[in-house]
Design goal:
The protein is of the alpha/beta class and about 475 residues long. The chain folds into 3 domains: about 130 residues, Rossmann fold (3-Layer(aba) Sandwich), CATH 3.40.50; about 170 residues, Rossmann fold (3-Layer(aba) Sandwich), CATH 3.40.50.300; about 130 residues, Helicase, Ruva Protein, domain 3 (Orthogonal Bundle), CATH 1.10.8. About 45% of the residues lie in helices and about 15% in strands. The strands form 5 sheets. The protein has a 5-stranded parallel beta sheet, with helices on both faces. The longest helix is centred in the first third of the chain and has 28 residues. It is elongated, with a radius of gyration of 31 Å. It starts with about 30 loop residues before the first strand and ends in a 5-residue tail after the last helix. It binds adenosine-5'-triphosphate. The site of adenosine-5'-triphosphate has 17 residues, from strand 7, helix 7 and helix 15.
Amino acid sequence: MSEDYVEHLPASGAKGTSPAPRKPQDGERRLMIVDDDPGIVRSLKWALEGYTLETAGSRPEALQKLEHFQPQVVTLDLGLPPHPDEATEGLTALSEILRLAPGTKVIVVSGNNDRQNAVKAVSLGAYDFYEKPIDAEVLQLIIDRAFNLRQLEEENKRLQAESTGVFHGIMTAADSIEALFRTVEKVAKTDISVLILGESGTGKELFAKALHKASPRGSGPFVAINCGAIPENLLESELFGHEKGAFTGAVRTVKGKIENANGGTLFLDEIGDMPLQLQVKLLRFLQERVIERVGGREQIAVDVRIVTATHRQIRDLIEAGDFREDLYYRISEITLDIPPLRERDDDAVVLAQYFIDVFARESGLRRLTLSPDAQSAIRKYSWPGNVRELENKMKRAMVLADGDMITASDLQLGVAPQKPGRMTLKDAREAAERAALRDALDATDGNLSQAAKLLGVSRPTIYNLIKQLDMKV
Ligand SMILES: Nc1ncnc2c1ncn2[C@@H]1O[C@H](COP(=O)(O)OP(=O)(O)OP(=O)(O)O)[C@@H](O)[C@H]1O
């Protein structure tokens, strides 16, 4: 018998009590053999080496042992009692194993002339199949491959869980965004005014909501208004409300967004587009915390936290006389600068897979993965529309993809034009360095020395560059 063979006995040994599930220890390889032929089970026990073994002779026994033994790999004979001459019991066992423990690698063992059922089993999710008579040496190779794959998948999952974080629905793997989470956590406890800066689609509104949710006002209302999307003459009454008869068409008294946000947070998006005359009125509200509805005289006290955002360069607006400097200081006690997606290193790929998973869950579509060429295309693209564009592109790619993978051509990325007027020479140099570095690292599988050779620089130079650009390798 193999030295490594350990018969797995229930801990208590008492009938009717199942032992508590125990996860495999580090490096432990747990294999369950499901077969009703004692001769085969015996010979496999002798021949297979390097595993902790468990055996089961029927579907119910296999399912019961699956729970407490938690094998990574199962060999499953398709012909099980009460119908050992058919594959029905085995195929049902396969489906149930995969439903209860989806990560399990099941190797189906079929009788001679039963290839059709074996192929069916693979289409149902079995890892592989093997035809009798059993050659233990070949079977061990297949089992080892299955264990290796399972280990890789687990490692991948662990790495992904370690490198990504979600904060009130904001997903990221970038240190720069994680740092913003920490700021939001601190700022949320206070009523300090927050101005969120960032290009369109970077997640400014998502951050405003996160700030609200993390604050003591979290259970109060979150009211958002886009100051750039509402005509100037309507914006005042949208914000401050109006009394009945205040203007033609004002047939009843209507509360404005500021009042509606009482006890919660008011998010003023595109504050840079607010007309000057309204900026004065907003400033007065921020100083006195009372409003007057349009056409009204009553002063109404409102308790609201103001969070603002803009994609515009507010300093330029102040210089051009389009934005009041005193209002700017009022609304920007703290500024959150959200970097564009192209500067967040691997965030684009992580977010792409995140959106694929979300859409798959929401729409009942199959869960796809990104092919290596798709990942590389996502990294190279400059994402002028940031996360919103990525979200849309993923939605479309999921519909277009044929197999189990989204390929680069499903993404239809093309070359995105750079935003005119937004790139300084420094930005352009950084973007080029980032792209070249990412390409070299992709080409060399992350090997710094080889990447340095490709780029014609020394290893310390490439190391410094990675640090400087805050990239993950
Ligand atoms: N880190 C993220 N994780 C998950 N979803 C995100 C993330 N960032 C942005 N999104 C999604 O991207 C879309 C755009 O985000 P959002 O509206 O917050 O951006 P914005 O900067 O306010 O855009 P705009 O300036 O155009 O108003 C939304 O659907 C949002 O849910």
